[in-house]
Task: inverse folding
């Protein structure tokens, strides 16, 4: 009543000003709310045919690379391997619940679909979560299946009463496989003999990781790092090396700063040597992680370790154009020429094949079904990928990891599977999957968090649609403003 009388006595001009100022203040409060998100919750929705509205598609970055997607029609079609997108948020969150509505077209050929969030931009590591796994879905209908929380135990023949019972009584090698789950069993090589002979390895570019086995010897690794200075990085081209034991506990860390040249002038720096020397380590498997961007080359690599298995990915620098032999236990092999010099012939198990173009990834089929396959790389700047490990000699090859359920995996002899997996829900021709992600420690730059959707084995050059996405929803949760104030006060 009082407010009505007050407004009645005001002039028209003042009323307009009050209304305009009220709109400005309200808009400011709305912007502050979305900037702070005081309740620690936010939901962002993506519909390929939708509009960039507040809280929706406008917060999602474009899906890339463009040659792996098809945007014709109302839905997003994935036609190649892994596609990436970013999500802009005004603050950091701790949990993300992704709900994705999708459909596949050939589950036999492309049985697995996963989502990931980037945790390391240098190693390009994504923490992966399962969207759909047709292999698990199919076997769950035929094998005895037991659910334990977010884990599943599948057995061809009932033998173990629980997952703990299985882990306490390890099945013979080759009978057990994991999916989206890891358990580090004690690993021992009974006939292992340490050596003092120095082994030299080919030049490598960028980041890489490897396993080595130690028993009554010093873990040693010497490498000269060169900076190509081809791609300017505001953070420089520093190198970090981490050593972990079999339980993923840090054993040692090493740092090598940038060479001081941050110009994009293509002048290779002089060598900067880094040595690892760790004596008196308990016998077992150790993992070495070399974090370096693609401007850094590892040369004059020397070690006395006789067991060396490089994990999943290698960029072979090889400008001497010497023949490099690689042995792998992986179930697939992908190659890419990262430079015009890399275009040319390769040999797989003695059979010749040709990489015709740069920057395109080619999946090379194994002509034989043997456990170990041999690749001979004859060209510089070749990037190789596999599902398992690589070694530069058959004697050095070993893999301490338990077999994994993956696209193209050989399931012969398999009797037990432990999987962290929740099957998607059927919506007729569509399926809906919900995955919960830990994003508390993920890489985030300029307010953007990077996500990935992956269909292993799908190659863009085949122009085959692996999956079609109807919508993606990301429900984020984190600390509320009150929680943050309490932390600050305490």
Result:
């Amino acid at each position: 009543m009082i407010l009505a009388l007050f407004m009645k006595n005001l002039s028209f001009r003042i009323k307009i000003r009050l209304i305009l100022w009220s709109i400005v203040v309200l808009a400011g409060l709305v912007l502050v709310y979305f900037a702070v998100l005081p309740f620690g919750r936010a939901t962002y929705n993506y519909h390929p045919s939708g509009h960039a509205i507040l809280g929706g598609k406008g917060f999602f970055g474009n899906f890339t690379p463009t040659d792996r997607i098809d945007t014709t029609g109302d839905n997003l079609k994935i036609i190649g391997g892994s596609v990436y997108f970013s999500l802009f948020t005004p603050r950091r969150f701790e949990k993300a619940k992704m709900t994705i509505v999708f459909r596949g077209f050939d589950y036999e050929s492309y049985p697995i679909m996963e989502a990931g969030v980037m945790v390391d931009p240098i190693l390009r590591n994504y923490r992966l979560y399962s969207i759909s796994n047709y292999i698990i879905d199919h076997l769950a209908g035929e094998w005895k299946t037991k659910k334990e929380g977010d884990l599943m135990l599948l057995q061809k023949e009932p033998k173990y009463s629980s997952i703990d019972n299985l882990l306490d009584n390890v099945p013979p090698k080759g009978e057990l496989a994991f999916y989206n789950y890891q358990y580090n069993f004690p690993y021992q090589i009974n006939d292992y003999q340490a050596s003092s002979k120095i082994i030299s390895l080919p030049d490598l570019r960028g980041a890489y990781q490897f396993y080595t086995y130690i028993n009554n010897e010093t873990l040693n690794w010497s490498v000269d790092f060169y900076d190509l200075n081809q791609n300017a990085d505001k953070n420089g081209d520093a190198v970090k090396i981490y050593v972990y034991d079999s339980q993923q506990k840090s054993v040692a860390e090493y740092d090598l700063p940038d060479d001081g040249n941050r110009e994009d002038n293509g002048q290779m720096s002089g060598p900067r040597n880094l040595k690892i020397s760790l004596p008196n380590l308990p016998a077992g498997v150790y993992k070495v992680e070399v974090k370096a961007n693609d401007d850094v080359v590892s040369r004059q690599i020397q070690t006395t370790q006789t067991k060396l298995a490089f994990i999943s990915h290698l960029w072979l620098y090889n400008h001497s154009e010497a023949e490099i032999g690689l042995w792998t236990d992986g179930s697939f092999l992908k190659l890419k020429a990262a430079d015009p010099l890399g275009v040319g012939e390769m040999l797989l198990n003695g059979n010749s094949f040709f990489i015709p173009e740069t920057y395109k990834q080619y999946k090379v089929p194994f002509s034989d079904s043997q456990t170990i396959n041999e690749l001979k790389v004859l060209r510089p700047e070749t990037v190789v990928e596999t599902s398992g490990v690589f070694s530069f000699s058959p004697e050095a090859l070993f893999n301490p990891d338990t077999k994994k359920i993956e696209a193209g995996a050989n399931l012969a002899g398999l009797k037990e599977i432990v999987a962290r997996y929740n099957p998607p829900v059927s919506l007729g021709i569509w399926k809906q999957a919900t995955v919960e992600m830990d994003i508390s420690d993920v890489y985030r730059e300029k307010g953007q968090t990077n996500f990935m959707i992956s269909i292993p084995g799908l190659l863009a050059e085949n122009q085959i649609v692996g999956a079609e996405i109807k919508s993606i929803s990301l429900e984020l949760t984190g600390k509320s403003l009150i929680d943050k104030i309490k932390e600050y006060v305490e």
